[in-house]
Amino acid sequence: AQSVSQHNHHVILSEAASLELGCNYSYGGTVNLFWYVQYPGQHLQLLLKYFSGDPLVKGIKGFEAEFIKSKFSFNLRKPSVQWSDTAEYFCAVRYSSASKIIFGSGTRLSIRP
Amino acid sequence: DAGVTQSPTHLIKTRGQHVTLRCSPISGHKSVSWYQQVLGQGPQFIFQYYEKEERGRGNFPDRFSARQFPNYSSELNVNALLLGDSALYLCASSLDGDTQYFGPGTRLTVL
């Protein structure tokens, strides 16, 4: 079945630490991949997306993600987190064979000031 | 530009009742999708409409229905409400059908 997994439910980091959030999707052909973020009290907004081309994509606020086809992964990274990065992060995938976008269960990121 | 708007913000209903949620997309966006988000989970796809036609449907019962109007706004209808329908209902609009721009959601509580 088409699915997305985010293995880390809650990540706690100190400011300036490096971040990597995992995202894996099940095999199902060509995919479009997304990371969304939900800051406290705000609605979901797009961080970055991958459709094709360079597997390393850069998004807003210093975030980047790498698409590794052989591992069915699309991990989110940031070299140095800030307190303002405290939020819930969602990975999402759309398989070319379907119109729906499937979201992972989310990773809550807490940053200690 | 105005973002995606949804109404109402909050809604309380009792079991068995019917509810209608409304969504206005970003100007120029012809695709609208609906999602259900239960606390602690990611959004779950309910419907996608493009140019007033249903493009996709998630694993939700027939009690859930939707439509898109000529001005591209959309309604989500849920009949015979159950306690388990309590959730945040999100609307998203899209220009390309992929990149979703989300509204603030409607919080539905079923008592």
Features:
heterodimer, A: 113 residues, mainly beta, four-stranded antiparallel β-sheet, globular, B: 111 residues
What does this molecule look like?
- The complex is a heterodimer of chains A (113) and B (111).
- Chain A has strands at residues 4-5, 10-14, 19-21, 24-25, 31-38, 45-50, 56-58, 64-68, 73-78, 87-95, 102-103, 107-112.
- Chain A has 113 residues and is mainly β.
- With 111 residues, chain B is mostly beta strands.
- Chain B has no helices and 11 strands.
- In chain B, the strands form 2 sheets. In chain B, strands 2, 4, 5, 6, 9, 10 and 11 form a 7-stranded mixed beta sheet that branches.
- Chains A and B meet through strand 5, strand 6, strand 10 and strand 11 of A and strand 5 and strand 10 of B.
What is the strand and helix layout of this fold?
The complex is a heterodimer of chains A (about 110) and B (about 110).
Chain A: E1 4-5, E2 10-14, E3 19-21, E4 24-25, E5 31-38, E6 45-50, E7 56-58, E8 64-68, E9 73-78, E10 87-95, E11 102-103, E12 107-112
Parallel strand pairs in A: 2-12
Antiparallel strand pairs in A: 1-4, 3-9, 5-6, 5-10, 7-8, 8-9, 10-11, 10-12
Chain B: E1 5-7, E2 10-13, E3 19-24, E4 31-37, E5 44-50, E6 53-57, E7 64-68, E8 74-78, E9 87-94, E10 101-102, E11 106-110
Summarize the structure.
Chain A is mainly beta. Chain A has strands at residues 4-5, 10-14, 19-21, 24-25, 31-38, 45-50, 56-58, 64-68, 73-78, 87-95, 102-103, 107-112.
